[in-house]
Fold this protein.
Amino acid sequence: MSAEPANLELREVSGPSALGGGRHRFFELLWLMSVTEFKKTFFGTVLGYVWSLMRPLLLFAVLLLVFTQVFKLGSKVAHYEVLLLFNIVLFGLFLEGTGGSVASVVGQEGIVRKTQFPRLVIPLSVVLTALFTLGLNMIVVVIFMLVFGAPPLLTWLLFPAILVPLLVLVCALSMLLSALNVRFRDVAIIWTVIATALNYATPVIYPLQIIQNETLKHALMANPLAPLFQQAHLWLINDPETESLITAAGGPLPLIAAGLIYVAVCVAGIWVFNREAPRIAEQL
Amino acid sequence: MAGFFARIAPLTPVTYPPLLTTHAPPQVAIEVSGVEKTFRIPTQRVDSLKERLTTFSQSDYRELHALREVSFEVERGEFFGIVGRNGSGKSTLLKILASIYAADGGRVRMAGRLAPFIELGVGFNNELTARENVELNGVMMGLTRRDARSRLGAVLEFAELEEFVDLKLKNYSSGMLVRLAFSVMIQSDAEILLIDEVLAVGDASFQQKCADVFYEIRDSDRTVVFVTHDMRAVEQYCHRAMLLHDGRITAIGDSDEVARRYLRLNFEQAPSGDADMGGLADITLSDVWLEDGGGERITNVEKGSELRFGAIFEAHRAVEGPSFGFAFSDADGVEVTGFGLGLAGDVPDRLEPGQRVRLSGEIENRLMPGRYVAKCWVHREHNYANLVLHSPHVLDFVVYGDSGAGVVALDHHIAATVEAASPVEGGARVEGS
């Protein structure tokens, strides 16, 4: 109990909001919620870390088998196995970040309806947890890359230039989806379909240069994820076969479209979440 | 210093606001002005995108005015009660104060940090240890991580759970969980606490501890807004209280008076049809009531007031040697009083079909405040074995007024006198009165 009553001023209470309650508190809560969630999945069980690695590695093994043995793709692309593992892990951030946050606000109903805190913490903590997972998985990817003889390049250091825009997109989508899912509970179901479609519309399991249909390839570059993954490919492996963004897009138009979609998603995410945040507790 | 703000003891019948404002004028901790809240309840709920896209008609809404023009102030250091029936808007108000809901209109202003406790243990994570949960909960309530961690010792000490600090909550018993949650609340150092119906937790000794803390908080300069159905708690802890009904403030002020108003309101509106008037078909109880000294029928009885009783039975078949009885029990089911009687006067000791019997008279009203129910029975041939009517719940009433110890107030004629000092024992003795 405070020893001496300070003179406290009356301050207006503005109600619940996306960010309300101070920046300091927002980041501490964000950090704490992500860390606890991370600890829960990784250190809760004996094989926590191993288990979390199993999923991308198993997926990697299956895809590698299919694409090198069935489709004979591996032989055409330099260091295909390195590229595949890297892409799976990076796309994992997108899948885990968006997929996990869709239902996050609804799932945290108990605290949303019973206490006051910046609502934005909920979806963003899911994204942050996904980022931690990415960090852990990247250790394995780097070891794998070195073992399988992909020569280290200076451009590897440019990885943050891929990661940051991807992270921003994931954050925007997680805000948009988690807020919409409060109103329309089937958003989560719809999103799993869209996410799968995006997985194939992005050069994740295949490199862009194997697409023969030029129009399709140009169209794919309008997907904001595609230029990011293509640029990552360019920086990851020194292979003259890999097309630059502008070549793959066949002109600036698809890239401009991708940029516009990117900005639109970010604006929509922030706008929708801000608009919905004050009413989330009532609608649950 | 405690005299910084003026306050009255909760049970002194002094009019509010207090006259003792020789110090600084009381500071306002919470100011609510003209708060409105309307919920739009869709008559047909559209909660999927599919329905939204396939339903052409704009869905209809039913408007529920949860709060209308609610304005009040709570002073710094006050323990302020909010009472009301279910659906009166009190929880909505609390959630608006706690920034969980946004008000549709009006303004809420607050001085100081607020910690809401709408439910015990909000945000507790079963997979985490007590240590981690206390930290997480503290940060959620607006503390910094360092402050939240430094609070841990005090929280665990109060909850008597020091040995289990690194045990995951999923391994806690429910009693331990409640203790931890309550302790987190108590140890919160926010200036304003919002508490919704969380008393009566844990075993008897922990409850006593909680009650002590509530008294301590009441006398400190922390402000508490307390929502409850328990009128005894209101009378015990609250300096002032407010009665909400249909989203409006119907009474505000002295907590005893508000509690009384609540009880009156509650039982005036209680459905009277649920009293079991049936029974075996030989004889039925067709009416039973209480009335005050003026003959007015009442469902709420003021403590110590004149209380009259009436009942009408109707026989459907002949009943030989009937006895009529009533027994009154308190809220704990303890029978407090009762009576049984046969037909009075110079009449045949039997009832013919269609005959009616009226019971009427006065009951000495020594009942302490609380809720009471009456049961009724009739047997034939003045033999308890021959039951013809037994209705367990025919009357339900509340006695209101200042509470005291026990279930009945007995007249007493006891005086305290000072005896001449005895030279053998020496020293003066003071007898309590």
Remarks:
- Chain B touches chain A through 51 residues (CB under 8 Å).
- The longest strand of chain B covers residues 28-42.
- Chain B has two domains: 2-112+191-268, 273-400.
